[in-house]
Design brief:
With about 500 residues, this protein is an alpha/beta fold. The chain has helices spanning about 5-25, 55-70, 75-90, 95-105, 110-130, 165-180, 190-210, 225-230, 245-255, 280-290, 310-325, 345-360, 390-395, 410-420, 435-440; strands at about 35, 45-50, 135, 145-150, 155-160, 180-185, 215-220, 235-240, 260-265, 270-275, 300-305, 360-365, 385, 400-410, 425, 425-430, 450-455, 465, 470, 475-480, 485-495. The strands form six sheets. It has a seven-stranded mixed sheet, sandwiched between helices. The protein has a five-stranded parallel sheet with strand order 7-6-5-8-9, with helices on both faces. It has a three-stranded antiparallel sheet with strand order 3-4-21, with no helix packed on it. This is Aldehyde dehydrogenase.
Length: about 500
């Protein structure tokens, strides 16, 4: 068993964090009221000073002022800053991944994967800078041209969550910058050091590319800091990632001032396993989707809807795999599941499991706390629970590694069960029957923003737009045409004739 992680271990982790920031040439951290903690030991790495409310206003003002010049820079030239950022992220990939592990508790492989997402989206955005296309349409009036053009929107406020402390910021920021916007970032108060690191690299990239570093602002603190950003009319778009509860607070406030929201909220993701599925392939995909990042991904698999004929063999496979998962310090070799982010997450997990059992569920394995890491660190074994029905607790999202297993006989019933939860982010089906696969992807199949066949619910690529429906918020980030959320559209009519015909054949005078 891993040795108890005590205060000495926390000091060692704090030294590692400080060393990373020094290698990145980050400015000295001013001690203050904001605690940067590590879930590995539950201890404090350092403290930072929260941004004061007048400083938030000033940061938004600097971003708004920088926008006036930035929007006039040609998009391919703006891409130079993003290109340089991608290069710096590549140079410091291991440093940033180490910080992600320290602050979010991800195993190094997952942390490195998150940093790679940042590098990938920079490459995507650089190419996008030459593809901000508008349409030209036939005009009904002779001698006229009808077209639409896209223009920078303004200051984009980005509010990110702890579980992907850097990737989601990069999805928004890389695209916003090539679109001609400036950015004000309010990261989770749980992961401020990764934010300081990324802000440092972006400002360096801007300076080295000949751009104004003021195009990016970082504000630190709790919900009052985010609220100030949400309420400011100088911020036409707020992109917020977090819980449904958070989205219910943000959306009305932005709507009240007639601003725009891009929301990425809860995901109570489900997968259907049919009688024809390749169970070995399904089991491998399910284990990572359900247990990866200790169940703390918005795309984590939480509901498994299995055909009754294969439920027993599949659960047996999953139980064997779950019992082999090594839970522990993410920096230790062979560990696949790190800690929960904090004690609140552990309490929520225990409450959900108790409710599931009281509802008639059978705890197949997992759910217990793993000892040996100190009172302030919360390591748990991923839980596998067979449920008689989709009860209220199954319909809720518990941000922890709990996988509920339900059975079905009729495929149409399986789809109804899958869709009856209020969230709609990611989904998948495991089948070798093409009809079942196509039915799942059809308009009356999965109602989620992401629908996969024979892969898990997590691990989205940056080339596709990421986001979901229903209580997930309807936002789309990253690839495809999600850039349109960061720009404003203008419809243009050009009269190159000497006449002045009106549309719809109207005669006036």
């Amino acid at each position: 068993m891993t040795e108890v992680l005590d205060d000495r271990a926390t000091r060692q982790l704090a030294a590692r964090a400080d060393s990373v920031l020094r290698r990145l040439d980050a400015p000295p951290i001013e001690s203050g009221d904001l605690s940067a903690r590590t879930p590995i030991t539950g201890g404090e790495l350092t403290t930072l000073r929260s941004t004061a409310l007048p400083e938030v206003d000033a940061a938004i003002g600097r971003a708004a002022a920088a926008f006036h010049a930035w929007r006039g820079v040609p998009a391919p030239v703006r891409a130079g800053t993003v290109r340089r950022l991608g290069q710096l992220l590549t140079e410091h990939k291991s440093d940033l991944a180490e910080l992600v592990t320290l602050e979010a508790g991800k195993i190094p492989a997952e942390a490195a994967g998150e940093v790679q997402e940042m590098i990938d989206i920079c490459e995507f955005a650089v190419g996008l800078s030459r593809q901000l296309y508008g349409y030209t349409m036939p005009s009904e009036r002779p001698g006229h041209r009808l077209m639409e053009t896209w223009h920078p929107l303004g200051v984009v406020g980005v509010i990110s969550a702890f579980n992907f402390p850097v990737a989601v910021w990069a999805w928004n920021t890389a695209i916003a910058l090539v679109c001609g916007d400036t950015v004000v970032w309010k990261p989770s108060e749980t992961t401020p050091l990764t934010a300081v690191a990324c802000h440092t690299l972006l400002r360096r990239a801007a300076a080295e590319a000949g751009a104004d570093p003021e195009i990016h602002q970082l504000i630190l603190g709790a919900s009052d800091i985010g609220a100030r950003l949400v309420d400011d009319e100088r911020v036409p778009l707020v992109s917020a990632t977090g819980s449904v509860r958070m989205g219910r607070l943000v959306a009305p406030r932005v709507a009240e001032r007639l601003g725009r929201c891009l929301l990425e909220l809860g995901g109570n993701n489900g997968a259907i396993v049919t009688a024809s599925a390749d169970l070995d392939l399904a089991a491998r995909a399910i284990v990572f989707a359900a247990a990866g990042t200790a169940g703390q991904r918005c795309t984590t698999l939480r509901r498994l809807i299995v055909h009754r004929d294969v439920a027993g063999p599949l659960v047996d496979r999953l139980e064997r795999a779950y019992r082999q998962l090594r839970v522990g310090n993410p920096f230790d070799d062979g560990v696949l599941v790190g800690p929960l982010i904090d004690g609140k997450a552990h309490t929520a997990m225990r409450a959900a499991l108790d409710k599931a059992v009281s509802d008639g569920g059978e705890l197949v394995c997992g759910g217990e706390r793993v000892d040996g890491f100190g009172d302030d660190a919360h390591y748990v074994r991923p839980a596998l629970v067979r449920m008689p029905a989709q009860t209220a607790v199954v319909r809720e999202e518990t941000f922890a590694p709990i996988l509920y297993v339900l059975t079905y006989d009729d495929f149409e019933h399986a789809i109804r069960v899958h869709n009856e939860v209020p969230q709609g982010l990611s989904s998948s089906i495991f089948t070798t029957d093409q009809r079942e696969a196509e039915r799942f992807l059809a308009a009356d199949g999965s109602d989620c923003g992401i629908a996969n066949v024979n892969i898990g619910t997590s691990g989205a690529e940056i080339g596709g737009a990421f986001g979901g429906e229903k209580q997930t918020g309807g936002g789309r980030e990253s690839g495809s045409d999600s850039w349109k959320a960061y720009m404003r559209r203008a419809t243009n009519t050009v009269n190159y004739s000497t006449e002045l015909p009106l549309a719809q054949g109207i005669e006036f005078g």
